[in-house]
Amino acid sequence: MPAFIVRRLWQMLPTMLGVVLLLFALFNWVGGDPAYILAGKMADADSIANIRSQLGVDQPYYVQLWIFIRQILNLDFGLSWATGEPVSQLIATRLGPSLAVLAPLTVLETVIGVALALLVAFARGTLSDRVVMLLCTLAMSVSILVYIIVFQYGLAYQLGWFPVQGWGGLRHLMLPVLIGLAVSLAPTLRLYRSFVLDEVGQDYVRTARAKGASERRVMWVHVLRNAAIPILTHVMSSLPALLIGAFLLERFFGIPGIGREVILAVERSDFPVIKAITVYVAAATMVFNLLADLLYQAVDPRVKLA
After folding, report:
1. CA–CA separation, 25 vs 263, rounded Å?
2. How would residue 112 be classed by pLDDT, with cut points 50, 70 and 90?
3. Which residues pair with 79 in a beta bridge?
4. 79 within domain boundaries
5. pTM value?
6. Which residues neighbour 45 within 8 Å (Cβ) at sequence distance 6 or greater?
7. Do 125 and 217 belong together in one domain?
């Protein structure tokens, strides 16, 4: 186990270097000159040259790349071009609201999705199974914008159960989580149902039934344990999204999270913020992939880490 972890950590280094090089190339050769963006349309050549000097973009590319790598190592991406706030501080203050929405949403989506998938798979092939799958297909066909508008109008404006804008308490959190759950539950249920049905036809299930195990025990113990690996893969691969927030939910509800900040950074061409969030998400993706491999063995001891 320790040797596997050390080897995977070493493998992350060239991957991260590739991400850094690609990100550097995109922002320097494709993204255009940031001095022109900051200076505005009416700026003169002296102002643009001054801004280029302050940003360090007048330096050779290898110097700029070393500055970028040093920023990553120090976790200091400088100041936001739009607000002048340190990027690290900006991300730290925006991460809390995003996690407050997406962390309970991820837990609820996983628990409810697994439970419903087992129940639907238990009734596989019946009319109830077909009706649930039809409802899931219809739910997946509806845009998240429709969910936001309908839920805001019905539950907030008409019934007054939840506030529509603002941030500061549990009541502000409940409606965005409810909308996120309504949007994500249908595709999650369909996916988890397919994982469960893949296991139902295996030999060990027939053996368990032949030994007299009840259908409930077969589904909730034997099938669930073996379906847990693809479910775990899906959950762990979605966890890096916690760092970039829910763009539309945060924008429509005025939540000061990372997703809303990403949209504002793109609108303002705030490159330091975009680069910092991209690096953090890339690193989180590799870390969560490593954790997923370690959890595979905890779920199923037959898995060997090589």
Report:
1. 22
2. very high
3. 86
4. no
5. 0.78
6. none
7. yes
CA 245 → CA 45, 212, 241, 277, 298, distances in Å?
A: 39, 47, 6, 11, 29
Q: Which domain holds residue 166?
A: 87-299
How far apart, in whole angstroms, are the C-alpha atoms of residue 142 and residue 201? 33
Q: What is the rounded CA–CA span in Å between residue 82 and residue 45? A: 21
3-state secondary structure (DSSP) of residue 219: helix
Q: State percent of the chain over pLDDT 90.
A: 1
The verdict on 93 and 158 lying in the same domain is yes
Instruction: Quickly state the pLDDT bin for 66 (edges 50, 70, 90).
Output: confident
238 closest CA partner among 131, 130, 137, 107: 107
How many alpha carbons fall within 13 Å on the CB side of residue 221? 10
265 and 188, same domain (yes or no)? yes
Rounded mean pLDDT, 88-107: 87
* Cα–Cα distance for residue pair 18/39, rounded to 1 Å: 31
User: Domain end: 10, 40, 74, which one?
Assistant: 74
State the first-to-last Cα distance of the chain, in angstroms, to the nearest integer.
9
Tell me, what's the pLDDT at 245?
A: 66
305 within a domain of the structure (yes/no): no
For the purposes of burial, counting CB atoms within 10 Å of the CB of 192, is it exposed (0-12), middle (13-18) or buried (19 or more)?
buried
The pLDDT assigned to 40 comes to 63
Q: Which residue has the tokens 């607000």?
A: 83
